[in-house]
């Protein structure tokens, strides 16, 4: 069944059905403004489009927890959370946004609980909380238990709960529709809609909308070793770039220290929070040497770099499955955790180790290596969720365009995100964007205000024009390789994504320098991008044609890689997750600034919002 107003006009289209998109949809439908409209007999037209069935969104893989200073197990305060967030982001954090994040975190978690999230409990029935790296009491004095959790399946709980609430609230979904274009009006100042491809029917739709919210998740698939699911190809970010917008701080990618060798699958930080210890080839618990005090629970970039340093110093270990292979892992030793306790609080971690490594964490040490985990940068938004452009002097909002969740950058994570802060970001700022959306919808609902003559069914209509161009593109892709003898004829998007991932990993993973960036940029320009442009599908049916969508996805990755390399190249310092071996120091004088990079351009720099916490030296 097609959505109700597909040939018509929507009040809002939300692209993405993870924590951010679903939180936004719920916030719209639950707002007082929309309730009032409904009382007046006006039904707002809101559509959530997702390339996956919503319950397959990556939010469902989040394991460890969601951060909030509930103070249920020990004293905690939002100001400490705020401080940790700013410090963890290596001071590249907009402090007004981070203060909101910390302040409204308890309310966000309690609302999730009321909606049905089955958090783990303390003995007296409160939401249980555990330690997570970088979260401290009393402005860095000692670790604090701040992450609310549901065993090690908190994302699964949150995703299912939000989805059920959305279904209950009557949210309209277009499932397994792939958004291929973000369309702005001709002067690029206002959103006009999106183009979406229904993968079941093989039909392309021009979807007109007064408001569009992008909540398409991260871009871990840029790297060969990643904890991210296959769908995280940075689509929303690439769509924004193609529409002429910038990405903010896109050079900052968090590598989670404990990806299971050689799958990249994440072993939650909870494994270390519960007592797991990293060891080198000599069996030494080396983190105490790099981060006295915090040791294995130091910030993720510190742990990832320490692992790399051990490997570079020849103290790495090989994956036992490939004993003659590279010694590019270290051990995660969980044998000190009581077996029953491990089963109770880390069921997912132990199952992953048993299933994919064939090891038993109760008795065996487990090989791990850093894995691309989280994209700190993204589509620039204000705290109201509205996307903006930066012209070198000030922000210019794009009317009706919103973003939330991992594809966005409200700049609460700065140069490095703390564990538990991204589910919080997605739920909290997703809700915030939904509230702003509700205000805009209530001001002029389509059903009352009618449809602007200049926005639909017009020969120059930008959404219809973009949809027509996309139909031509699809026809060309489905026509197959022009010449079957062409040596590229059997190239495919999966092989290209693997090659791109290897190039990006070599160039940027955990550390980089000017030559590594330049080599990757050359390969991208001379080899990978031309290959992406030449790709054609090998099957001509438009329905359920996964190669077709994979071609769009790898093209998105290629676009994103170009901008990520440009931003990494321009930042001549090391900060947070970005470790430039040729510029090892943080340079606040020149680079206490957000990079704002459009496709094919040098970044512009936007000052960081410092409110009440001047940058401090790193101390861990
Ligand atoms: C293994 C793992 C563990 C994690 N653990 C934690 C944790 O313990 N705590 C924490 O705070 N964070 C954790 N994170 C991070 C956190 O889960 C994510 O940042 C967050 O869930 C992102 O939510 P989102 O709504 O932005 O995106 P997602 O949940 O990734 O959803 C993206 C949505 O966009 C849709 N979409 C994408 N492209 C298109 C397109 N072209 N057309 C249509 N639809 C599209 C998809 O269908 C999907 O519905 C973890 C991440 C991973 C990978």
What's the helix and strand layout?
Layout: E1 10-15, H1 19-30, H2 32-39, E2 46-50, E3 66-67, H3 78-88, H4 95-103, H5 105-115, E4 129-137, E5 142-148, H6 154-169, E6 172-175, E7 177-184, E8 191-198, E9 203-214, H7 235-242, E10 247-248, E11 253-260, H8 270-273, E12 277-279, H9 287-290, H10 300-315, E13 330-333, H11 339-345, H12 347-357, E14 366-375, E15 379-380, E16 386-390, E17 395-403, E18 408-409, H13 421-443, H14 446-449, H15 462-478, H16 493-508, H17 514-534, H18 546-570, H19 588-591, E19 593-597, E20 604-607
Parallel strand pairs: 1-2, 1-9, 2-6, 9-17, 15-18
Antiparallel strand pairs: 3-5, 4-5, 7-8, 8-9, 10-19, 11-14, 12-13, 13-14, 16-17, 19-20
Helix pairs in contact: 1-6, 1-13, 3-4, 7-18, 16-17, 16-18, 17-18
The protein binds flavin-adenine dinucleotide.
Residues 15-21, 49-52, 54, 57-59, 61-66, 154-155, 178-179, 215-218, 227-228, 231-232, 235, 266, 374, 405-406, 419-423, 426 line the site of flavin-adenine dinucleotide.
């Amino acid at each position: 069944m097609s959505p109700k107003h597909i040939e018509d006009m929507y009040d809002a289209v939300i692209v993405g059905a993870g924590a951010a998109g679903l939180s936004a949809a719920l916030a719209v439908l639950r707002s007082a403004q929309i309730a009032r409209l409904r009382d007046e007999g006006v039904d707002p037209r809101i559509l959530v489009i997702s390339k996956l069935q919503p319950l397959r969104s990556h939010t469902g893989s989040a394991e460890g927890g969601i951060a909030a200073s509930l103070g249920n197990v020990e004293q905690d305060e939002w100001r400490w959370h705020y401080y940790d967030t700013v410090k963890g982001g290596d001071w590249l954090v907009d402090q007004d946004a981070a203060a909101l994040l910390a302040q409204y975190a308890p309310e966000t978690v309690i609302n999730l609980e009321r909606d049905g999230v089955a958090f783990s409990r303390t003995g007296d029935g409160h939401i249980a909380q555990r330690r997570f790296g970088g979260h401290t009491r009393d402005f860095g004095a000692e670790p604090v238990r701040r992450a609310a959790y549901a065993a090690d399946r908190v994302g699964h709980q949150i995703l299912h709960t939000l989805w059920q609430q959305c279904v209950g609230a009557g949210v309209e979904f277009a499932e397994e529709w792939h958004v291929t274009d973000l369309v702005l009006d001709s002067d690029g100042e206002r959103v006009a809609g999106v183009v979406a491809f229904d993968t079941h029917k093989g039909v392309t739709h021009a979807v007109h909308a007064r408001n569009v919210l992008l909540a398409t998740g991260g871009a871990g698939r840029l790297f060969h070793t990643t904890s991210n699911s296959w769908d995280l190809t940075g689509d929303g970010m690439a769509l924004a770039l193609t529409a002429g917008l910038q990405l903010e701080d896109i050079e900052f990618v968090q590598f989670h220290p404990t990806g299971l060798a050689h799958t990249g699958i994440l072993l939650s930080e909870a494994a270390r929070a519960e007592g797991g210890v990293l060891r080198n080839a000599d069996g030494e618990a080396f983190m105490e040497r790099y981060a006295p005090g915090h040791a294995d629970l130091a910030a993720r970039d510190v742990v990832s770099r320490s692992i790399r340093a051990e490997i570079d110093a020849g103290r790495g270990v090989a994956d036992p499955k490939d004993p003659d292979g590279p010694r590019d892992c270290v051990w995660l030793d969980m044998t000190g955790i009581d077996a029953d306790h491990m089963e109770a609080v880390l069921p997912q971690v132990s199952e992953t180790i048993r299933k994919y490594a064939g090891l038993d964490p109760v008795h065996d040490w487990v090989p791990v290596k850093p894995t691309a985990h989280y994209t700190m940068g993204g589509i620039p938004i204000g705290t109201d969720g509205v996307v903006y452009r930066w012209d070198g002097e000030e922000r210019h909002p794009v009317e009706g365009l919103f973003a939330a969740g991992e594809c966005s950058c409200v700049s609460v994570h700065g140069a490095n995100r703390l564990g538990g802060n991204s589910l919080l970001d997605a739920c909290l700022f997703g809700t915030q964007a939904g509230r702003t959306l509700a205000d805009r919808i209530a001001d002029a609902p389509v059903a009352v205000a009618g449809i602007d003559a200049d926005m639909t069914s017009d020969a120059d209509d930008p959404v219809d024009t973009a949809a027509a161009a996309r139909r031509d593109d699809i026809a060309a892709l489905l026509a197959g390789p022009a010449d079957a003898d062409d040596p590229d004829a059997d190239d495919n998007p999966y092989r290209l994504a693997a090659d791109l991932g290897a190039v990006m990993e070599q160039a940027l993973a955990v550390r980089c320098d000017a030559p590594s960036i330049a080599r990757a940029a050359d390969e991208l320009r001379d080899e990978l991008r031309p290959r992406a442009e030449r790709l054609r599908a090998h099957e001509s049916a438009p329905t359920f044609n996964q190669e077709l969508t994979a071609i769009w996805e790898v093209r998105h990755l290629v676009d994103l890689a170009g901008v990520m390399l440009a931003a990494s190249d321009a930042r001549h310092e090391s900060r947070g997750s970005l470790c430039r071996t040729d510029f090892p120091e943080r340079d606040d004088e020149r680079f206490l600034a957000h990079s704002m990079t459009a496709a094919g351009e040098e970044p512009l720099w936007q000052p960081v919002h410092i409110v009440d916490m001047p940058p401090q030296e790193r101390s861990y």
